[in-house]
Every structure is written in C-alpha cells, then in structure tokens.
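Task 17 of the worksheet. Students: predict the tertiary structure of the chain below and write it out as structure tokens. Keep your answer in the requested format; marks are given for formatting as well as content.
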Amino acid sequence: MAILNSTVGDYYIRTLGVTRNGGYFEYKPMFVEKLPVPMLECVRRKPFETLANYALQTTAKDLKLQAAYFEQLIDGLVYELYFPDEIKAAGKEILPHLGELPPITDTQSTEKKLAVIQAEFDRLYDPRHPVRNHLETLDSVEVVKTIREALKR
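Model answer:
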C-alpha cells in the first residue's frame, strides 16, 4: 500500500495508465498490476508497516504535521527501495538512520499509541537528525527530482 500511495507509485501509474477528463488517472488493475513491486523480507517490510500505522493514527487524530511527516518519510523510503544505488551514492539513505521504530498495537490505549508516535516524531523530526535532513534534501538526487518534476505537470 505504501508504494501505491507514494510519488514513485503515482509516477509509474501516470506513465502506464490512462488520463481521463479533468486530468484524473485510472487506477485499474490492468495498470496497477504492471507496477514493479520489490519483494521485501519481513525485516525490511517492518518500517513501512510501522510508519503506515503511525500515519493512520495521526491522520485519525487530525495531527496534520505528524501525519504529513510520516507520509513524507514513507515516500522517502519508497525512493530508497526503488533507487537504492542512487540514494546511497548521494548519501541520502534513510533506512539506516531510522533505528528501531516501536510498534503500536491494538491492545494499547489511544493515549499510549499517541505517546509512542509523538516520541518517534520528536526524534525523527529533530532538525539535527539525519532522517529529516535527508528527506528535506532528497530532491538533490536526480531521479527523485525528475519524478517530482514530472508529477507537477
């Protein structure tokens, strides 16, 4: 799901899909099936799942800044997933700097979930943290810049 909601996924769908009146794109199975989805072992999949849960919880609680940041972070990880060599060569890797993201569970209270999420947000959103720095400068990677510019059209 993270891939479909990412700018990389959007770029592929727009490249493969059909534009309808008003500039809308069709996300039909015949187009989505063509989207190359890398197979991830459980260890590499975990950060995507945890961050998606953070994004869902913060969106549900209308915590706009946190939700937007976690979505941006997932997007950055998707770039790293699809273009690992380019991201690494530019020194913009995110995954190695994430650390252990504590999961949230259905058994936790809403307050506990939000406390965990807020602590991780505070850590990763710190202006001195490499994750934030790399996210803010990801456009310096040519493939990222190309995709983002293509989506502006």
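Marker's comment: The chain has a mean pLDDT of 87. Residues 42-60 form the longest helix (19 residues).
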